[in-house]
Amino acid sequence: MIIVNRLVRLLAVLLVVTFLSYVLLNLLPGDPVTQILGLSATEEARTQLRQDLGLDQPLLVRYLGWLGGLVTGDFGESYITRAPVASALAERLPVTLELLVAAQVIALGLAIPVGVAAARRAGRALDQALTAVSFALLSTPVFVLGVLLILVFAVTWQVVPATGWTPLSLDLGWNLTSVILPAITLGCGQLAVYARLLRTDLIATLQEDYITLARARGLSPRRILWRHALRPSAITLITAVGLNLGALIGGTVIIETLFGLPGVGRLIVDSIFSRDYLTVQGGVVLISVGYVAVNFAVDLVYAAVDPRIRRA
Amino acid sequence: MKRWRTPAALVLVAAVVVACSGQRPVATPQGGGSPEATGPVKGGRLVYGLSADANGFNPITDQFAGQSYSMAGTIIETLTSVDADGDWKPYLAESITPNEAHDEWTIKVREGITFSDGIALTGDIVKANLEAQKASPLNAAVLAPVESFELVDPMTVKVDLKQPWVVFPYYLDAQVGMIVPPSSLSDPKAASQKPVGTGPFLFKEYVPDNRMVVTRNPHYWRQGLPYLDEIEFRILPDSQTRAQTLDSGGLDAMGTTRDEDLAKYGGQKDAYTVHRSQGMAVAEYMFMLNTAVPPLDDLRVRRALAYATDRETVISTLRGGLTEPADGPWSKDAKWYAEGGDYPAYDLAKATALVKEVEAEKGPIRFEIISTPDPNTMQGIELAQDMWRKAGIDVSIKQADQADLINRAVTGNFAATVWTAFSSPDPDGEYIWLHQAYARPVGSVSLNFTRLKDKRLSDALDVGRTAPDEAARAKAYATVQERLRDLVPYVFVDHLNTGSVVARTKVHGIGEHVLPDGEKGLPVTGSPIPYHPFYQLWVDPQ
Amino acid sequence: MRRRPGPDSQATGVLGRTRPGSRSAAGVLGRMGPGFWAAAGWIALVLLAAVLADVLPLARYDETLAGPPRSGPSAAHPFGTDGLGRDVLSRVVHGARVSLGVGVGAVLLGLGIGAPLGILAGYRRRAADTVIMAVNDVAQAFPALVFALAVVAFAGANLRNVLIVLGVLGVPSWVRLVRGATLTYAEREFVLAARVLGARDRRILWREIVPNVAVPAASYAFIGMAVVVVAEGGLAFLGLSVQAPTPTWGGLINEGRTLLETAPHVVLAPSLVMFLTVLSFNLVGDRLRALTDVRESGLEPVREAGAAPLPSAPHEVRAGCLLQAEDLRTHLVTPRGVVRAVDGVSFTLERGRTLAVVGESGSGKSMLIRSILGLLPGSSVRGGHVYLSGDDLTARTPAEMRSVLGPRLGTVFQDPMTALNPVRTIGTQVTEPLRVHLRMGRRQARAEAARLLASVGIPDPERMLRRYPHQLSGGMRQRVTIAMALSCGPDVLFADEPTTALDVTVQDQVLRLLHRLREERDMAMVLVSHDLSLVARWADEVIVMYAGKVVERGPAAEVFARPRMPYTEALLRAAPRLSDPVHHRLSVIPGRPPDLADLPPGCAFQPRCPYAEDRCAREAPPLTGSYACWYPLDEVVVEGADSRGR
């Protein structure tokens, strides 16, 4: 039942998002013909190509045509490269997913101990130091952080490659070394966000009676923090992780550009700039599905983490 | 940078400073031998950094940029090539000869060349390629003077022109002259992704936005070539991290346009070689003005802008003093450069006087300049904006993405924009951008973006296109330069010869290639980032 | 602490009781500490600079070649110059306008739209939730760049539009975040209770949900501000921010990053200013929130050695006595001053007996229990001694204390609704002490837990072990906490108002159970209550507390029959009636409990005492014999109190 419900919602979201983005994208000045033909094409050539691509048809007709294709699993072809959109997305999705997962693992792996340490010593020197570091990380844009990290780890110490991508299927070791710097760059900002959120919630949880009572039962602070306090404090953190995962499916463009990763973010952003409408649409579908899936997962995790939250 | 800095800054930058002054990758000296001493060595692999990906590798359907030539050029070859003197020379063609009137060219195809798929290169394949090019919407304007192609004998194609065209073979040096096998012609989509040609390398792998790998063509028609076993092109759009990748040893060579890189790598002669573009291939950096809309339809305003533009300051501020100020479309070291005309060199007083004069008549001068949003471009515009402000011209900056900007340029929906152009090997390559026949009113597609309609300029361009006599052509292009200086459709800033290829010293042969008939080839060419053939590149053995 | 209706546990109650508004603002701010002032000063400086940017003696922000390009800090250009030779200081100062405007504005916009929707979705659920979250999914999945491009293409690049873009793009995150936080509270007992009691939704939202959601929301707001300011730089990079050359912090960092290796100050200056600003906002916000909110992790007390332990009077340690408290004192150091929560309490307790500790809320009873157990907040100072079978507990470290807590000292708290961890099953919670202290295996612990649950009268204990606290009634939960307290066979059971939060009909059952268990297990029990009449039945001895001090003590029957201290009498009179609401405060005693940080001189009860004389206001009465009062009541029984001229 829940699954059906979610599917209906997914379809509704897909329809609205793809339609709105299609309309808006088409209203933007410029069109793919300019990108395909460049500067030296004549007006006749442009008109001809516009016809060939079907760009002379009304917006709604084109949208419906695309939608009809989508129903049969056909995402269409890129105007620019004339390659199928679906295969372009399929090629790039693993890169972005791996980057995202690695970044989340790094961010959460550090944020949880940092948040716990800060909450445990709330208001004291360690907490204040961690707060300052968090905001320093937040105030450092990824393009600055990325360049600094490359400088230190790739140029000076030469322990990892500066840029580039080795697919997982090719070589696991090289794949990991090629994902580590971008993942750290991406994860740092999120680490700061997560640690702050966890700290706040954890401090609140540590005031609960059941924590005091756990102490009254002679349980160690370590046990209380990790087994008793962490889970009830995780709701905001889970929300934030879900939000990030969703937002980053298309939002890793700067990281991908810096590190030369062939990811979805670059594809979508480049396609927006080259007005490659169908590729953008494909990306929008991907992001929508991703969002709805992530949100679904987040709600499931909510329920798993806090049994009081029972989905209606 | 010996000034005092705040301690906090010092601490925070420690990492940077350490990294900058620390270890530097040093090329392994190969027994101290110079290339002359050891000579080219076969084998090896080259990793080459590029700034952008291609839109596809099919010369007939895909628009080629510099990076497309670098990548596809290792696989697909052209009918002609340009030599070190800037003259065209046959490449896949054995010879290309005009008739007396230069309205008919006969292309004789070189014997004994086969595509990597085993098909032999013949006249009808060349003809099919040229016909496909003419039919492609990409090149309709470029090939407008062509009437038809005709197969004279199995290895000879005759090109019938509507008018004399003395430099037609130059165009066969680029996309138009790239020859692909019949299979590519019949399946253009496949050809876009997997290029096939007669070239020194074979397609191996292509991951969009990431890399393209090509391997040695063991049956290449030029004996003994190529030297390299494999080339990997890495697409790294961010110039800063691209340079860092070179630093870290991840690249053997890369293209760049940053003056920082020229200064940095130029100073490490033991570790790097820097190959800057020169001559006709150098693009000009300028502000392009729309002469069809107010206030820039007024010559006095255009001249005032030029007077207010301090080219030397731009060069010292933005280019590290590495470039030369420009006063026309061709750089001073190019053979077509000519003095003459009255280009408004920096003179703030004259600028202010002109502005006052126009203002008295028409009120304040205000317009919008369009820029792509990347920081480097913006810096140039912001600098110019402040220079023009000092002359009393109120310019605001509007940022537009590439698609929007090109669209505006083509349809005339702009007052001024930042532009780079004029990098064709022959002045005739600029014909469509400058000729009044290509100027259309604002609102319709015009390839003459400035919409400057000047008869003397256009007549001179026609002479340059049709006159077989070199001296006559030189005179015509002198007139072109003179008119451009007088009428100021462009505010020229500098010859953008910062476009260059930086390579580790273990890489040899960049810009030192020899054409099939023995002439030295044009070193590095194209803009903004130059490209060059790869067949004579070799690397020191590890 | 999270605000929750109902009887506050006194540990935090003494602090939370007084509202900051009741004292002068200056007085409060005076205690904020230097960090707060530095941060507030920095914000004021940045704001002032942003406002006065045009009149300050700075170079024009767009004046190129004001100095040599890329030159480091100098007297003429304190932050150096950028790639075009523009004064970086001037650009940073002018950039503050856009960046602060966008940072604050976008967060407010996102909060203004996102928070109400998130609360509504989390509280209402069902249709409202589905609709809001579906719209939210649409908003999130919509390509942000297309939206930003469209806004700029159609509405132009200026501060307002950038603010709108970033604000609107932030809304979905706010909705999700606030909804998530709301969800955890919408199902909370106090909210459910309020809903069952028929409180209006609006009231519940404002009183119960909003204050609780505000904490994570505020925390996210400061993070959000930093994120937005950086994001603006990203927009600037894409050409979708304010028109150049108008500087913004994010834009400056963007511009400067290519100079990172040659002129790092161009990136560092705006980065540092931005960092300090968001950090300052966070710090100021944190401190301001702390004024209304006590945030103490309270996990581990500060080691007392560091805080100069309070001296104690010489006394005799009675070896045969099970529990002995000697001159026990607990002082809390708060921003308002020292709160004497427990002030010189002594008692003894033998095995098989029940000691009742009685007093109003805020009298220090619960604090006394926590002092004995060593469960004090970090800001407290403890004095005196507690002996368990002659062993000084106050000399133990927290780690050493843990071997006593559970195995020898069991505890039951007043509110079973909050005493159990909501996310762990009953089984996990009941077996935990067994496994930790008695080192039982999983299977053995479960069997023992089931036996324990059965012993406290819980039907079908096996099934109960798999359930979560929220699936149980209040009475059942209290039985579970009792079972947990007894699991390791303690010698002393501390029951802190064990029945206050329960239904009146259940109260008696629970007390009866506690009494039975005490007898069965031959334990001693410390029973804390504000209700003297209730405990009189079950207690052997009573101590009555007021303002942290013992004001009367003695055998239960005696104190109950013949109170000597007027406060005890008043408590007896104020015995709650069945018709009172559950959390009824003893308002029948005139006046309010005193402010423990600011006690009146003399007898603390004197301002409320109907029999007070002059001497009561001058001198504090010592605890002589069984009571502390200059003018104790007659030996006459309670009924006779009227004869004293009322």
Automatic annotation (TrEMBL), chain A:
TM stretches of this protein: 7-25, 99-118, 130-160, 172-194, 234-259, 279-305
Subcellular location: Cell membrane
Membrane topology: Multi-pass membrane protein
UniProt GO BP: transmembrane transport
Pfam families according to UniProt: BPD_transp_1, BPD_transp_1_N
UniProt keyword Cell membrane present: yes
Domain of life according to the entry: Bacteria
One Gene Ontology CC term in the entry: plasma membrane
Swiss-Prot/TrEMBL keywords: Cell membrane, Membrane, Transmembrane, Transmembrane helix, Transport
Family: Belongs to the binding-protein-dependent transport system permease family.
PANTHER family: DIPEPTIDE TRANSPORT SYSTEM PERMEASE PROTEIN DPPB-RELATED
Name by which UniProt lists this protein: ABC transporter permease subunit
Higher taxonomy: Bacteria, Bacillati, Actinomycetota, Actinomycetes, Streptosporangiales
From TrEMBL, chain B:
Protein name from the UniProt record: Solute-binding protein family 5 domain-containing protein
Family in the record: Belongs to the bacterial solute-binding protein 5 family.
Organism per entry: Nonomuraea phyllanthi
Lineage, uppermost ranks: Bacteria, Bacillati, Actinomycetota, Actinomycetes, Streptosporangiales
Signal sequence, renumbered to the chain: 1-19
Pfam families the UniProt entry points to: SBP_bac_5
GO process terms (BP): peptide transport
Gene3D superfamilies, per database record: Dipeptide-binding Protein, Domain 3 (3.10.105.10), Periplasmic binding protein-like II (3.40.190.10)
One GO cellular component term noted in the UniProt record for this chain: ATP-binding cassette (ABC) transporter complex
InterPro entries, sorted: Peptide/Ni-bd, SBP_5, SBP_5_dom
Keywords (A to Z) from UniProt: Signal, Transport
Every Solute-binding protein family domain range: 89-433
Any GO molecular function: peptide transmembrane transporter activity
UniProtKB/TrEMBL annotation, chain C:
Gene Ontology BP term (one): peptide transport
Molecular function in Gene Ontology: ATP binding; ATP hydrolysis activity
Family assignment from sequence similarity: Belongs to the binding-protein-dependent transport system permease family. Belongs to the ABC transporter superfamily.
GO cellular component: plasma membrane
SUPFAM superfamilies found in the cross-reference section: MetI-like, P-loop containing nucleoside triphosphate hydrolases
Organism: Nonomuraea phyllanthi
Protein name: ATP-binding cassette domain-containing protein
Short name of one Pfam family: BPD_transp_1
Matching SMART domains: AAA
Membrane-spanning parts: 36-59, 98-123, 135-155, 161-178, 209-242
Keyword Ribonucleoprotein in annotation: no
Record-linked NCBIfam families: oligo_HPY
Keywords per UniProt: ATP-binding, Cell membrane, Membrane, Nucleotide-binding, Transmembrane, Transmembrane helix, Transport
Membrane disposition: Multi-pass membrane protein; Peripheral membrane protein
Localization, UniProt: Cell membrane; Membrane
